[in-house]
Amino acid sequence: MNLLLWRHAEAQDGDPDLARELTARGRKQAEKMAHWLHQHLPERRLVLVSPAVRTRQTADALGDEYRIERQLAPGADVAHYLAAAAWPEGPPGCAGTVILVGHQPTLGLLASLLLGGTEQPWSVRKGALWWLTTRERDGRAQVVLRSVTNPEQL
């Protein structure tokens, strides 16, 4: 399974938190990342998005249909993200690729858990994408870091 952790792009400050919109810079970050994703993603994928406006605007740049998942809201824990993605098999119909568009610190905690075995406060930059995949080696399941990409690198 491919699991892509995409942090929302730069957003305006303010309240209520769920209504915060992307800045002009954030829209450019999301567009750059979406362009890169179109060049690298399998055609079939499932995009799951936090209910926050900034995550929906980030996902809008990709142009795919997406499903809003309350389990990905700000402050959600890693278990909610794993459940939304149905890790490690993936939900029915995802064709093996799930994109979670969400928030810090949960994305960093999730990446550290899957790659290192414990939740650690890893930083995921605004607009960045971490691409993880599973494989089997010597009869054991492994998680492999396929890519970490930031909009500034594109």
Task: Give a quick rundown of the structure.
The protein has a single domain, classed as Phosphoglycerate mutase-like (Rossmann fold, 3-Layer(aba) Sandwich), CATH 3.40.50.
Structural class: alpha/beta
Number of strands: 6
Strand content: 15-25%
Annotated CATH homologous superfamily: Phosphoglycerate mutase-like
> What helical percentage do the residues reach?
25-40%
Distance between the termini: 25 Å
CATH-defined fold name: Rossmann fold
Structural Rg: 14 Å
Number of H/I helices: 4
Number of domains: 1
Strand order of the largest sheet: 3-2-4-1-5-6
Main sheet summary: 6 strands, mixed
The string of secondary-structure elements, in order, is: EHEHEHEHEE
Which outline best applies? globular
Q: What's the overall average pLDDT, rounded?
A: 96
Question: Segments where pLDDT lies below 50 for 5+ residues?
Answer: none
Q: What top-tier CATH class fits best?
A: Alpha Beta
CATH architecture: 3-Layer(aba) Sandwich
If you had to describe this structure to a student in words, what would you say it looks like?
By secondary structure, the chain is α/β, with parallel strands linked by helices. The protein has one domain: 3-Layer(aba) Sandwich (Rossmann fold), CATH 3.40.50.1240. The chain is 29% helix and 24% strand. The chain has helices at residues 24-40, 53-60, 78-85, 106-116; strands at 2-7, 46-49, 67-68, 97-102, 129-137, 140-149. It has a 6-stranded mixed β-sheet, sandwiched between helices. Strand 2 (46-49), helix 2 and strand 3 (67-68) form a beta-alpha-beta unit. Helix 1 (24-40) packs across helix 2 (53-60). The longest helix is centred in the N-terminal third of the chain and has 17 residues, at 24-40. The model has no long low-confidence stretch (mean pLDDT 96).
